[in-house]
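FAQ

Q: What does a record look like?
A: Structure on top, sequence underneath. For example:
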C-alpha cells in the first residue's frame, strides 16, 4: 500500500482516536462528581450520581470495544470470539441513535479478521450521522457492514482514504481509523470496497 504511515505515527493517531471516544463520558463523570461536591440538594445529588453511573458504563464500554478493535486483545496470533465482539459492539453503541443488527455467528475467528469487522462497523456508523441501522454479517470470505438511514453517505475523506488517494502527511485522528481498517484488510488478505445507494452505504471486505 502506498502512503504508509510510520508505526509510531499510526500508534499516536490511534491513541488520539481512542482518547476522543472516551473524553466525553470521562468528562461527564468529573462533572457529576463536582455537582455532588457542590450541591447539597438531595434530588440534584441523585441526578448527579445517575450521571456518574451512566457515564462510567459508557466509558467502560468504549474502552473495551476500542481494546478489541484497535488493541492487542487476546495476544499475538490468537483467535477471538465473534459473539463477544458483537456483545462489545452493542455495549459500545448503547443508547446511541444508531441501532445494531449483529448477524455474525458465535464462533472463534482470526483476531485480525474480527478487528477488521469491528472497524467496518465503525465505518458504517460514521456513514449514518443522523442515525439508522447498521447490519453486520460475516462469512468465511466476506465481511460486511451495511449502514441504512436518512442521509446515509460516504464522506469524501473516507472515500479518498479507501481509494488510497490521501498522502500520509494529511492523516489525522479523524481518518486514521479508515487507514487502520485498510491495514487490517491487507494483513488478513482482504480488500475493502464501499457501495453507495440512496439511503444505504455498504462496506465489504472480500478475501482476495
Amino acid at each position: 500500500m502506498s502512503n504508509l504511515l510510520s508505526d509510531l505515527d499510526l500508534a499516536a493517531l490511534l491513541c488520539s482516536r481512542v482518547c476522543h471516544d472516551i473524553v466525553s463520558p470521562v468528562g461527564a463523570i468529573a462533572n457529576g462528581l463536582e455537582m455532588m461536591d457542590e450541591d447539597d440538594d438531595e434530588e440534584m445529588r441523585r441526578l448527579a450520581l445517575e450521571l456518574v453511573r451512566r457515564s462510567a458504563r459508557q466509558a467502560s464500554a468504549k474502552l473495551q470495544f476500542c481494546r478489541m478493535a484497535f488493541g492487542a486483545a487476546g495476544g499475538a496470533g490468537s483467535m477471538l470470539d465473534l459473539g463477544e465482539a458483537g456483545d462489545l459492539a452493542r455495549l459500545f453503541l448503547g443508547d446511541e441513535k444508531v441501532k445494531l443488527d449483529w448477524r455474525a455467528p458465535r464462533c472463534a475467528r482470526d483476531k485480525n479478521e474480527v478487528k477488521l469487522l469491528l472497524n467496518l462497523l465503525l465505518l458504517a456508523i460514521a456513514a449514518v450521522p443522523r442515525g439508522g441501522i447498521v447490519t453486520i454479517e460475516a462469512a468465511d470470505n466476506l465481511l460486511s457492514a451495511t449502514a441504512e438511514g436518512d442521509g446515509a453517505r460516504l464522506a469524501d475523506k473516507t472515500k479518498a482514504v479507501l481509494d488510497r488517494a490521501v498522502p500520509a502527511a494529511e492523516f489525522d485522528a479523524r481518518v486514521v481509523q479508515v487507514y487502520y481498517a485498510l491495514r487490517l484488510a491487507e494483513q488478513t488478505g482482504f480488500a475493502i470496497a464501499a457501495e453507495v445507494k440512496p439511503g444505504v452505504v455498504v462496506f465489504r471486505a472480500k478475501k482476495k
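Q: Is there anything notable about this one?
A: The longest strand covers residues 190-197.
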